[in-house]
Specification:
This protein has about 250 residues and is α/β, with parallel strands linked by helices. The protein is built from 13 helices and eight strands. This is L-lactate utilization protein LutA.
């Protein structure tokens, strides 16, 4: 299968090591991975700000760039959600967009559901206490984990993958799916509320003695990392692909 690697724009600029870890994981599965240089932002910040014309231009460009790949894989649940759920209004039953919509996956979803969890093995050890932050888009739209309001047994694709890593200790949180408060432009428009929510999310991890907070969205982790650094909290954040790729904190 031919994989088109989609890297969110802010990750490309601010977190290149996470992007490289994503590439490494896919290559370690023996996949043919291509990184198309013509890719741009998915348009999520513009959509959050009401700039629909700008989103349409980016959506058309995205589909043109990625339409010929068997799968499109990205280390961001929110960006994948943007493509799957919010591009439709710009395409009238377009064959190319329908293919892209069906082919794009967040990397944990791709490893768990397409490569299959039973076919994945990690050799490296990660002897740390780790708490999983379930970002809202991935959690409730992509179904990366079970939402608590459904009152059904909890299952998490992120947890299932991390349990394959030797010597890792996954902690239990009081709230498995509480929002961190980032919410894209919400964190700018409602700064005080956003920070308060972030502090609550971090406190849950601290109370559970987590050494590492991980998740599938670097935007949420970036938000919490800023609060952690300002408050000098004794915990670090790592994107899940870093742990799966063997990166140490």
């Amino acid at each position: 299968m031919k994989i088109g690697l989609f890297i969110p724009c802010f990750m490309n600029e601010l977190y290149p090591l996470v992007c490289k870890a994503t590439y490494k994981i896919l290559k370690n599965q023996g996949l043919d991975v291509d990184y198309p240089l013509s890719q741009t932002c998915c348009g999520q910040p513009m959509a959050n700000s009401g700039c629909s014309k700008d989103v349409k231009d980016l959506a058309i460009s995205f589909v043109k760039t990625f339409k010929n790949y068997d799968y499109i894989v990205a280390p961001s649940g929110s960006c994948v959600t943007m493509v799957k759920e919010h591009y439709g209004e710009f395409f009238d039953d377009n064959e190319d967009y329908n293919k892209v919509k069906a082919s794009i996956y967040e990397i944990c979803e791709f490893l768990h559901d397409i490569i299959k969890i039973e076919n994945i093995k990690f050799e490296h050890s990660f002897p740390y206490k780790v708490g999983i932050h379930n970002s809202c888009h991935g959690h409730r739209v992509l179904k990366l984990a079970t939402a608590s309001e459904l009152n059904i047994p909890y299952n998490s694709k992120l947890k299932n993958l991390l349990e394959k890593v030797p010597n890792i200790e996954l902690i239990t949180l009081k709230r498995e799916d509480e929002c961190c408060g980032f919410g894209g432009t919400f964190s700018v428009a409602e700064e005080a509320v956003s920070v308060a929510m972030g502090k609550d999310r971090i406190k849950d991890h601290l109370n559970s003695n987590a050494q590492i907070i991980t998740g599938a969205d670097m935007s949420c982790l970036m938000h919490m990392d800023g609060i952690i650094n300002r408050d000098k909290n004794p915990v670090k954040v790592m994107h899940i692909v870093e742990i799966l790729a063997g990166v140490r904190p």
